[in-house]
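Anyone up for a design puzzle?
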């Protein structure tokens, strides 16, 4: 079976999609599939290409605006490769136009993974540009897909609300579980740099949809009234988008919490491992997520989690692996106080429940087998998997 992937970036600049697309491709190659990944070149491509070990990758140059991602080389590559199936991992770009043209000409099927890009909150960003793209090509691209891929049933419902009637496979992102739980940092190890005895970590892109301004207001309120909070530091790790970092640093100054908040910058590879390993808890107060890999990573490292229902991981609450907070500052503050009241043993137990959850439901080998079954079904070689919704 020959599969081609189209993705907007082959580097860390794709955020969570970088790891999810890369690891899915690698696991599928391990099952015997031939997977060719076509992605757009950016400033971080060269240093991240080695991470695609085992997968055939092509980095194409963009002609014109980066936001549209026009890459004529992709069309030539598909003509040469002649895949049986195309799997698209981005929307609103040239790849949607190319996919539709390729499928029509080759008379072959394709699958689309929106990765949260059809969430109502996500659709509000660059609203008019997306409305124009919908009319011009995106609605046709989505509507003619043989199958859509949703990370959660909640995301599948957003596809229906959007008006899409295609079959939908519901398969989550996977996670690589560390071989050991976090512990005290070894002597001489590089620390992430904390401002208190314990660290509450946010790890992800710095973007308004992550709701970090409300987190800072909640953090300030708790610090003013709680003695226990003075033993904690809020670590904010991630890369800036839309100038949000400047807004956050200004809020830290205005709220007078400089002594309890640290910005660590982007974290990848060994530095991300060290940051997760030395944290004591994790928070994601997001306004909208399809399925946040960062929460799965936090659980994999045995961390208790504070998150909103909008993170679409209700099994975390059911398993007792997370504290539920709403996006408003008052609710986030209440969740923070609950976390601080816990003993170290209680927080460890919560984190261990999260680790068991990802081991049981979100391991990459299991995810790859589910996706492979969908590919076989789409190509007519297998029965419809139970995780494919047709109504």
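Challenge accepted. My sequence:
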């Amino acid at each position: 079976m020959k599969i081609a992937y189209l993705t907007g970036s082959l580097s860390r600049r794709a955020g969570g999609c970088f790891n999810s697309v890369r690891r899915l491709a690698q696991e599928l190659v391990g099952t015997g599939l031939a997977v060719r990944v076509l992605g757009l070149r950016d400033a971080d491509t060269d240093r991240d290409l080695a991470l695609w070990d085992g997968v055939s990758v092509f980095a194409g140059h963009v002609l014109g605006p980066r936001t549209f991602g026009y890459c004529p080389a992709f069309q030539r590559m598909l003509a040469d490769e002649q895949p049986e199936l195309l799997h698209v991992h981005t929307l609103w770009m040239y790849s949607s136009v190319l996919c539709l043209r390729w499928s029509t000409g080759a008379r072959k099927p394709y699958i689309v993974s929106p990765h949260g890009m059809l969430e109502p909150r996500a659709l509000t960003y660059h609203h008019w540009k997306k409305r124009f793209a919908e009319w011009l090509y995106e609605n046709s691209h989505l509507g003619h897909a043989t199958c859509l891929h949703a990370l959660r049933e909640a995301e599948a419902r957003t596809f229906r609300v959007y008006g899409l009637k295609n079959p939908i496979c519901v398969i989550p992102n996977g996670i690589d579980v560390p071989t050991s739980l976090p512990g005290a940092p070894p002597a001489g190890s590089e620390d992430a740099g904390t401002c208190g005895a314990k660290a509450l970590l946010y790890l992800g892109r710095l973007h308004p949809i992550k709701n970090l301004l409300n987190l800072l207001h909640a953090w300030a309120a708790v610090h003013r009234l709680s003695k226990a909070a003075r033993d904690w530091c809020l670590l904010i790790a991630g890369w800036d988008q839309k100038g949000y970092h400047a807004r956050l640093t200004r809020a830290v100054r205005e709220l007078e919490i400089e002594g309890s908040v640290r910005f660590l910058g982007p974290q990848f590879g060994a530095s991300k491992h060290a940051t997760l390993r030395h944290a004591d808890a994790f928070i994601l107060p997001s306004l909208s997520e399809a399925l946040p890999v960062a929460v799965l990573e936090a659980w994999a490292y045995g961390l208790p989690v504070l998150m909103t229902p909008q993170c679409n991981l209700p099994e975390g609450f059911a398993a007792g692996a997370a504290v539920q907070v709403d996006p408003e500052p008052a609710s986030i503050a209440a969740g923070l106080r609950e976390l601080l009241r816990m003993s170290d043993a209680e927080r460890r137990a919560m984190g261990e429940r999260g680790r068991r959850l990802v081991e049981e439901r979100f391991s990459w080998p299991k995810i790859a087998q589910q996706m492979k079954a969908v590919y076989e079904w789409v190509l007519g070689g297998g029965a419809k998997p139970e995780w494919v919704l047709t109504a």
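A detail worth pointing out: The first strand starts at residue 2 and ends at 7.
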